[in-house]
């Protein structure tokens, strides 16, 4: 277990460029390096973006952002402008190579996968993955998701005193679901989930030293190797059986990394923050207790309102262009605030409020364009299953601490709670 744990410590740092080993760049120190205005998109006031984000959006939906290292950057806060940037794949690059050489980033830290890839590489890899994320293929997971949710609720019911809904509910549901999706063998699942937990614990601490980047891929590559030898019925096994000659182990590991990190932290944060919304909004409780359509509206509004992935992957302008009346020069960095865009009044009335009965909007919680989250439907399946089961099983669910005692992440690309103590009986 110790060696696996050290591998994932390196993997976490590589995947998010969040923190690096002593040889690299430490983003723990970013708060002292970056100007306050550059940190605003990653901060919140409870569940809401900080007020300055709305002010920026009203004044200039695309505005200059102060960044160090001589970077010329723009922050997009408007909904229309965000869609224009995210949908313009031909004019912007998301390739990891754009980051190499900046702030100590090196080429071997490339996590692979879809997020930091441009066409034609992105097109080829997404074409391989897309069939595995259709509703028809994903429907096979429905019984297992229901079992996972029930198992977690059963365990919570046996706990005396306060329960941390984050550790007992929000984290294990997506963790075990992704194990099922990828086809991780049963003998690896316990370690797999513990590694996922360690990953989150690190973000709550300070001064964590992450291992070498070369170690970070070893764990996933080991899983890929097992699947090569004996392909299972999960995503990795299906890709190997249907496209084994078209994709190498490194690419497969990168795709697995993207599925895990893209579908774990985001869904876990949604489950915890969404539970908090339920605890303070009786109309939301009523919606979740309603029919499938009511649950659907609740989940879509929750996705918009929370938008836990606060920022899209950085875009690098490949040419001079004009968007929203603003001139963007070739080489400029464009950062899109998804959370600000999803509160834009252009989407509807009173977008800063949560309304469980609101008709679904064309929100950007899963981003937009070629980099829209490929696992969006899987996330929706988990949310639509978990929330009704939670409130049905524990009708007296309530916070175990005063609301002001809750600890939220201070500066984070993926927003969330550190813990959520509740009483279930």
Automatic annotation (TrEMBL):
Superkingdom to which the source organism belongs: Bacteria
SUPFAM superfamilies: Cytochrome P450 (SSF48264)
Entries under Pfam families matching the protein: p450 (PF00067)
GO terms of molecular function: heme binding; iron ion binding; monooxygenase activity; oxidoreductase activity, acting on paired donors, with incorporation or reduction of molecular oxygen
Alphabetically ordered keywords of this record: Heme, Iron, Metal-binding, Monooxygenase, Oxidoreductase
Pathway(s) it belongs to: Antibiotic biosynthesis; vancomycin biosynthesis
Cofactor needs: heme
Cross-referenced InterPro entries: Cyt_P450, Cyt_P450_B, Cyt_P450_CS, Cyt_P450_sf
Described purpose of this protein according to its UniProt entry: Involved in the coupling of aromatic side chains of the heptapeptide of vancomycin.
PANTHER family: CYTOCHROME P450 BJ-1 (PTHR46696:SF5), P450, PUTATIVE (EUROFUNG)-RELATED (PTHR46696)
Family note: Belongs to the cytochrome P450 family.
Name of this protein: Cytochrome P450
Species for this entry: Amycolatopsis australiensis
């Amino acid at each position: 277990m110790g060696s696996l744990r050290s591998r994932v410590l390196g993997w976490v740092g590589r995947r998010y460029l969040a923190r690096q080993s002593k040889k690299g760049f430490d983003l723990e120190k970013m708060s002292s390096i970056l100007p306050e205005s550059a940190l605003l998109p990653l901060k919140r006031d409870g569940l809401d973006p900080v007020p300055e984000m709305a002010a920026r959006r009203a004044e200039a939906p695309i505005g200059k952002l102060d960044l160090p290292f001589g970077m010329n950057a723009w922050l997009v806060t408007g909904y229309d402008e965000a869609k224009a940037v995210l949908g313009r794949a031909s004019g912007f690059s998301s390739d990891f190579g754009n980051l190499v050489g900046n702030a100590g980033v090196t080429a071997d830290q490339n996590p692979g996968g879809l997020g930091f890839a441009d066409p034609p590489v992105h097109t080829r890899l997404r074409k391989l993955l897309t069939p595995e994320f259709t509703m028809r293929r994903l429907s096979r997971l429905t019984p297992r998701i229901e079992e996972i949710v029930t198992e977690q609720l059963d365990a919570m019911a046996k706990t005396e005193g306060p329960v941390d809904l984050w550790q007992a509910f929000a984290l294990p549901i997506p963790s075990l679901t992704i194990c099922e999706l990828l086809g991780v063998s049963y003998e690896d699942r316990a370690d797999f989930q513990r590694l996922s937990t360690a990953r989150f614990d690190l973000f709550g601490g300070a001064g964590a030293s992450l291992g070498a980047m070369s170690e970070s891929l070893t764990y996933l590559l080991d899983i890929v190797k097992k699947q090569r030898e004996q392909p299972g019925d999960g995503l990795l096994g299906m890709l190997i059986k249907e496209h084994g000659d078209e994709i190498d182990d490194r690419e497969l590991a990168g795709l697995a990394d993207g599925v895990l990190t893209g579908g774990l932290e985001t869904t876990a944060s949604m489950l915890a923050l969404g539970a908090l919304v339920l605890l303070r909004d009786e109309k939301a409780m009523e919606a979740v207790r309603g029919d499938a359509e009511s649950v659907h509206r609740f989940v879509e509004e929750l996705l918009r309102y929370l938008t836990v992935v606060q920022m899209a992957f950085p875009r690098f302008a490949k040419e001079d262009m004009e968007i929203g009346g603003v001139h963007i020069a070739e080489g400029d960095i464009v950062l899109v605030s998804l959370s600000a865009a999803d509160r834009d009044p252009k989407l509807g009335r009173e977008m800063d409020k949560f309304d469980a009965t609101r008709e679904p909007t064309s929100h950007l919680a899963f981003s937009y364009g070629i980099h829209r989250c490929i696992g969006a439907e899987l996330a929706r399946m988990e949310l639509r299953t978990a929330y009704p089961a939670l409130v049905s099983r524990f009708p007296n669910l309530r916070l175990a601490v005063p609301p002001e005692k809750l600890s939220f992440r201070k500066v984070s690309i993926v927003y969330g709670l550190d813990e959520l103590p509740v009483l279930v009986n």
